[in-house]
Amino acid sequence: MQELFLTAEDQGERIDRFLSGDLEDVSRSYIQKLIKDGAVLVNGDPVRANYKVCAGDKIRVEIPDPEPVDILPEDIPLDILYEDEDILVVNKPKGMVVHPAPGHYSHTLVNAVLYHCGSRLSGINGVLRPGIVHRIDMDTTGSLLVCKNDRAHQILAEELKEHHITRRYHAVVIGNLKEDTGTVNAPIGRHPTDRKKMSTKAPNGRRAVTHYRVLERFGGYTYIECELETGRTHQIRVHMAGIGHPILGDSVYGPAKCPFKLEGQTLHAKILGITHPSTGKYMEFDAPLPDYFTALLEKLRNRS
User: Fold this and answer.
1) Which of 44, 129, 176, 285 could make an SS bond with 99 (beta carbons 3.0 to 4.6 A apart)?
2) What are the residues whose beta carbons fall under 8 Å from the beta carbon of 31, sequence distance 6 or more?
3) Where is pLDDT greater, at 27 or 15?
4) Mean pLDDT of the residues in the chain
């Protein structure tokens, strides 16, 4: 059971939309089913999916225990950057979801990793996220770390928590950044009105810091590298949009229309650096830019 209390910022939003943004990994269609089944109560009473939430509402959501599901191995090719007995580092393609979620149990990176690794995966995150230490958005490409045993997972999860893992991303942003280097230090939390988005204007945002440097300028666009000091949801996308330079192709935090044929944001997790859980040595992995990204850079160079 989950209990939620509404504030003035949430006023007037449909309850199914509000809950789909507030409850991680629960789809809107599943929430609508819960509402229909009477599992969502507002101030003690069942409501319909089109109920508009009000400040002061007390919402109780009874999410039934999940039925056992079989997350099946799938023979999906993996672009492997590195592998040993402890870890696997892959270059995730655009459009691939990292792990299964309710209503989405196939064609994910986890399905592919299960096929490749078999039983050699850590079980710390359960059957839906075996071996997964961190994740990147579906339309973000690049380096992703998978752990093959619980010991490696515990060590690297602690590294991530203490911000000791290097994560450098490449992106193309809209506009011409004034400075060659900079830092965005702005807390990030759930957007006050759009529950599917994150925002630097959230009342209870958590510390978020992104460092950036310019790699190349194209007049109306800038090719940059961003290094994460923290790792909040959508951090780079939210921070760059927050300073007026949204990532090209990001229809969530930037313009709805894009002048180039892109599928989502031009954001690539290029460099991943860790201290190896067994050897204690620092290692860096470099994921090559995907073809669409290099083709876009060539177009921008030709235009400018």
Assistant:
1) 129
2) 16, 19, 20, 23, 40, 49
3) 15
4) 89
Helix (H, G, I), strand (E, B) or coil at 17: helix
pLDDT digits (tens, 9 = 90+) for 157-212: 999 988 899 999 999 999 999 999 999 999 998 887 776 789 998 877 889 999 99
Buried b (16+ CB within 10 A) or exposed e, 109-143: bbbbbbebbeebbbebbeebbbbbbbbbbebbbbb
Which candidate in 16, 137, 139, 250 is catalytic? Answer: 137
- Please determine, for residue 24, whether its predicted confidence score (pLDDT) is greater than 60: no
- Is 137 one of the catalytic residues? yes
Helix, coil or strand: residue 199: strand
Pairing of strands 87-92, 80-83: antiparallel
DSSP state of 8: G
Task: Say if CB 98 and CB 92 are below 8 A apart.
Answer: yes
pLDDT digits (tens, 9 = 90+) for 213-240: 999 999 999 999 999 999 999 999 999 9
Residue boundaries of the structural domains of the chain? 2-61, 69-161, 168-268+294-303
Taking the domain 2-61, which CATH number applies?
A: 3.10.290.10
| 134's tokens | 């961190």
Instruction: Please report, in angstroms and rounded to a whole number, the separation of the first and last CA atoms in the chain.
Output: 56
Q: Nearest Cα to 168, choosing from 248, 274, 280?
A: 274
Work out the angle between the directed axes of helices 15-22 and 28-36 (0-180°, nearest 10). Answer: 130
CATH number among 3.30.2350.10, 1.10.287.1120, 1.10.260.40, 3.40.50.300, domain 168-268+294-303: 3.30.2350.10
